[in-house]
Amino acid sequence: MKQRIKIFETIRSLAEFVAHEFQLAVKNAADDGNIFCVALSGGSTPKALFKMLAKPEYRETISWDNVHLFWGDERNVPPNDKESNFGKTKNALLDYIEIQQTNIHRIRGEENPFIEVTNYKREIEKVVPFGNTLIPRFDWIFLGLGSDGHTASIFPLSNVLNKKGKICSVAKHPVSGQERITFTLPLINNAKRVSFLVSGEGKANILKKILKSEKGSKKYPAALVQPENGILEWYIDEASGKYL
């Protein structure tokens, strides 16, 4: 596994850098005649990226026909709910780009999560290439970081941590009890490229514990994201990286 850490002055400069990287990655895939499978995340920092990608210099130059969009997790809410990760992406990005509806693979949060988790697994396996592995291999997965060390909807002490042989699972928020659907660690760690997008002083302490591999840091799900044959990137702003 290769790991990169890059600190930016502002969220805007972070978003602009990653948007350019995304543009280049999609172009390389299109030039090779391949589709580009990416999993998106919720949160304020990814939202800044989506807004950047919606700008003309990106939305008009990216080959969206080659891009297949998935989500790493979703709450058990309809797409028009303010908590919906899909809904946030739609408002910030999807409403501004020309992409075929068949290339948008959302988790149906309005459905029974125990039925939808099976449907979403099949959707992923139908579209995302397996390569030389036994499970699908995403080109790029974007992740956020919670102040408790969770990522996607994989929380500390969650039974999702022990899910082996599954690529998606139903999870529960440890405080609210809200049900969610989430990628599992085996699926995340099989990706070619995984990028954490982190901003804000509130994430500084947990980020320090994970990136400095402090004692006990392995109890945090985000610390267990270690792509087996891929790249792990941490794109962070100065506020969240203040203790590094």
Walk me through this protein's architecture.
By secondary structure, this protein is α/β, with parallel strands linked by helices. It has one domain: Rossmann fold (3-Layer(aba) Sandwich), CATH 3.40.50. Helices cover 29% and strands 19% of the residues. The protein has seven helices and nine strands; from the N terminus they run βαβααββααβββαβαβ. It has helices at 11-31, 44-53, 56-59, 85-92, 113-127, 185-188, 204-211; strands at residues 2-8, 36-40, 67-71, 73-75, 140-143, 168-172, 179-183, 193-198, 231-237. The strands form two sheets. Strands 1-9-8-5-2-3 form a six-stranded parallel sheet, covered by helices on one side. A three-stranded antiparallel sheet has the order 4-7-6. A hairpin with a 6-residue loop joins strand 6 and strand 7. Helix 1 (11-31) packs across helix 2 (44-53). The longest helix is centred in the first third of the chain and has 21 residues, at 11-31. The chain starts with a strand and ends in a 7-residue tail after the last strand.
Secondary-structure-derived class: alpha/beta
Number of strands: 9
> What is the radius of gyration?
17 Å
Order of helices and strands: EHEHHEEHHEEEHEHE
Spatial order of the strands forming the largest sheet: 1-9-8-5-2-3
Number of helices: 7
Indicate the CATH class: Alpha Beta
- State the share of residues found in helices, binned by percent: 25-40%
Largest sheet: 6 strands, parallel
Mean pLDDT across the residues is 96
Number of domains: 1
Task: Write the CATH fold name.
Answer: Rossmann fold
The amount of beta strand, in percent, is 15-25%
Low-confidence stretches: none
Distance between the termini: 21 Å
CATH architecture: 3-Layer(aba) Sandwich
**Judging from the principal axes of the Cα atoms, what is the shape?**
globular
